[in-house]
Design brief:
The chain is mostly helical and 86 residues long. The protein has 3 helices and no strands. The chain has one domain. Helix 1 runs antiparallel to helix 2 and helix 1 (3-23) packs across helix 3.
Amino acid sequence: MGREFWLRKAAVLDRIALAEEVTYAPEVAAPAIETAEEAAGWLADFDHTHHTTHGPGKPLLTPPGRSYRPYVRQEYLAWIKTQTES
């Protein structure tokens, strides 16, 4: 799978998790949040391995225990900008 696949997958799962966080109790939203975290990690790993980061933050400079979801948002924003400029 290519970067665009992982980026778009991580972005949609992040949006689902955000919606569930504000809609449901923490224990109900937890599976969506965990799935979004896992997908964000996949994207960060892909970008680190392939040197494909487009935003200012680097994927594996995040200290352990912090979320990669903000990284997904940064990268999705950079990707969307390139799509609209084309």
